[in-house]
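This part of the workshop introduces the protein records we will be handling. A record pairs a protein's sequence with a compact description of its fold. Comparing a sequence with its tokens is the quickest way to learn the format. The record below serves as our worked example for the rest of this section:
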Amino acid sequence: MHTINWTKAILAGIAGTILFDLFGLMMGMGWWDIPALLGEKTGLGLAYGVAGHYGNGVLLAVLYAGIAPSLWGPKWIRPFIYTTGETIALVWLFMFPLVGAGVAGLDMGVDMAVGSMVRHWIYALPLVFIINKDLFPAQKD
């Protein structure tokens, strides 16, 4: 029976979201571009956007912690499989069209699709080093 280490999942979600934001800043997208968009689109402001963005990051990490043992492949690649699927299903096919950027954000250019995927792979790094270390302590790749 597998149980989720909630502390590590929450820490990984926060750390991953910080890395996601830092990478976005380094790529010239501004600090808290996603929270600002969430706050604007909902009309609830930046504070709501930040809470929603980081809450989502934690939720995705908790979900990963729950399903990671069922994913295919070596432990180090599982977070990348997970974030690739999550990005395609939830960002490219849902969020981008919802905010008017088209499927995969292509209405804003190919760099939007590529950038969003890379940002989510950056987010996955704490899942590798925090959650996987807890889930697969004795497994060797």
